[in-house]
Amino acid sequence: MRYRTLIMPLILAITGGAGMPAASAAPASTPQAGEVASLADLPSDIRVVIGPDVSDRGGPFAPGCVAAKGEPHSRFAGARMDADSAQVTIERGGIAHYFDTLDFRRVDGRWVHVPKQPGQGGPVTAPKE
């Protein structure tokens, strides 16, 4: 008990801003350099590979096996691009809810999908909530 007055300020000093309100944090929707925030911002070559049945980021999406209102089972999660490479992450719904990252390279002015090689990793499943 006699160390309580010494320990509590020390704990507060160590934890610092751990309890800062979310309003003080930078908005998560602010794109970083090279980040693509919408399907509409992707080159058409990449959008063709992704396909038409993919909802945009934050759009309607069926994470489970059943789509109550006809929502797509795939949703754009984000992308990173530079001059000659791109990585596009798609959230896939269904019995195995996971995130799939597609790799693209720029070849002769066109974006080309680079398929995963055997043993290069599989889908990353979403954490249980």
Q: How do the helices and strands line up, and which of them pair or pack?
A:
Blueprint: H1 4-15, E1 35-36, H2 44-50, E2 74-81, E3 85-92, E4 98-107, E5 110-114, E6 124-125
Antiparallel strand pairs: 1-2, 2-3, 3-4, 4-5, 4-6
3D structure, described in words:
The protein has one domain (25-125). Strand 4 (98-107) and strand 5 form a beta hairpin. It contains two helices and six strands. The two termini are 39 Å apart. The radius of gyration is 21 Å and the shape is globular. The protein has helices spanning 4-15, 44-50; strands spanning 35-36, 74-81, 85-92, 98-107, 110-114, 124-125. It is α+β, with helices and mostly antiparallel strands and 129 residues long. Residues 8-28 have low confidence and may be disordered. Strands 1, 2, 3, 4, 5 and 6 form a six-stranded antiparallel β-sheet that branches.
Q: What's the quick description here?
A:
The chain is of the alpha+beta class and 129 residues long. It is built from two helices and six strands, in the order H-E-H-E-E-E-E-E.
Q: Taking all residues together, what is the mean pLDDT?
A: 77
**What would you report as the Rg, rounded to the nearest angstrom?**
21 Å
**What best-fitting shape do the alpha-carbon axes yield?**
globular
| Major sheet size, sense and barrel closure | 6 strands, antiparallel
Order of helices and strands: HEHEEEEE
Hey, roughly how much beta strand do the residues contain? 25-35%
The DSSP helix count reads: 2
Number of domains: 1
For the termini, the CA-CA separation is: 39 Å
**Secondary-structure class:** alpha+beta
Helical coverage, percent range: 10-25%
Number of strands: 6
- Low-pLDDT sequence parts: 8-28
